[in-house]
Sequence to fold (245 residues):
Amino acid sequence: MRFAIFGDIHANLEALNAVLADAQAHGVTHYVCLGDIVGYAANPGECLEIVRALECPVVQGNHDEQACANDDLAGFNPLAQFAIDWTRQQLSPEQKDWLRAMKLVRQVRDFTIVHATLDTPQRWGYIFNPLDAEASFNYQNTQLCFYGHTHAPRAYVRDSSTTVHSHAFTADSPLPVEAGKKYFVNVGSVGQPRDGDWHASYCLYTPADQSIQLRRLEYEIGAAQDKILSAGLPQRLADRLALGK
Ligand code: ZN
Fold:
């Protein structure tokens, strides 16, 4: 059994296709999606249908929530607002119903998934340091939890003394899952990485090996950028893909 755990696709079809091809090449048997399927790039409906066809566990992200809502967009920056408005026009009522039905937190086998934080998942807070992660650990009932939202791969580890450490999490070295420790793992973003590296990001988790492997992948970034511009979405949304921020 091997899981591909991926999220923050943000309507980037080229990046999603690259991730799913890589997962298949690595013998993935199960898929898990951490939300923000839509928002920012030009293929929200296509990405939604691909994830839906996987019939895998999914949790709702803040962009998924907004894309199927009708209220105003207070709290989002202008770029996100523009993209959410545009995305609402692209999705069918039936696709919005599917987004609306998603849960915020789920347990999959022996691990938990959430988009943003476990302590207050509906508030969409950002975890940037061990102190932020501590609050989530207090609500984590499984040894492992995977999350997204910051678009930057990172692993927080709580040892038996309940001290939380932040671990750089790179594609070069798998993260071992050790007994007696808890792990809160950010798998990075498929469609809009923000850690300064433009490559699509996701994780492989193999329970038999107790190891988590980050993957970073090339994809047809030029095609994704062209589609953002032809859709009339802001230039900045195309530019940022290449900058990885
Ligand atoms: Zn996101």
In short: The pocket of zinc ion is lined by residues 8, 10, 36, 61, 63, 149, 151 (CB under 6 Å).
